[in-house]
Amino acid sequence: MSTTTNPITPARFAAALPALPLSALHAKAAELRNALSHLASSNAQLADFAAAGDADCADALRENEEVARRMEERIALLRAEVQARGMLWPEDEDEEALNGKVVNGNGNGVREDNEGTQGAQRDEGTVGGGEGGQEDERRGGESRGLSDEELQRRLRERLGEPDEDEGVHL
Asked: What is the C-alpha separation between 121 and 33, in angstroms, rounded?
């Protein structure tokens, strides 16, 4: 068994991406961002010791910088794959939202699944699609949930009022 392992090449990493669902691409990007955050913290701690002349810490710092570069390269490959599928990358969505270009959904009442195909249309006018429901705030570009009182009222309507003798008492 070898004491060193070589990381997967960028070409092999990129070749594996088309077979993955969109959710897996975003999850891998989140995992890489988390690892980068921890690596940056570690590097900040190592930098003081490396500057003081600790050769081991200086070597570890250089290795960590190379690992961070590979992680950033993989995030760029993930971004390219997501964009190749015609979807926005989270940072792109944030930027467009700040410019006022993005609303919740695609604007036609039909949600799209992860592959970009149209999913089942649902009643976007009311929360939960129920009759007499509260108007959905998505139309105003802002999505708000039900208040606690409204949610409790709707649950009581669906489930009926509980009898005082029924239920679990702890």
From this structure: 34
User: pTM of the prediction?
Assistant: 0.53
Handedness of CA 123, 120, 16, 6 (dihedral sign): positive
Task: Tell me the sheet residues that pair with 112.
Answer: 118
Residue pLDDT, tens place only, 90-139: 876 655 555 655 445 544 444 444 444 444 433 434 344 444 444 443 33
List Cβ neighbours of 121 (8 Å cut-off, separation of 6 or more).
Answer: 109, 110, 111
Please work out, in degrees rounded to the nearest 5, the angle formed at the alpha carbon of residue 71 by the alpha carbons of 19 and 40.
150
Q: Which residue has the tokens 């108007």?
A: 135
Per DSSP, the three-state class of 62 is helix
Between helix 55-84 and helix 22-51 the angle, nearest 10°, is 160
Identity of the residue numbered 82: V
The Cα–Cα gap between 38 and 113 comes to 33
Could you give the count of Cα atoms lying within 13 Å of 41 in the half-sphere of its Cβ? 6
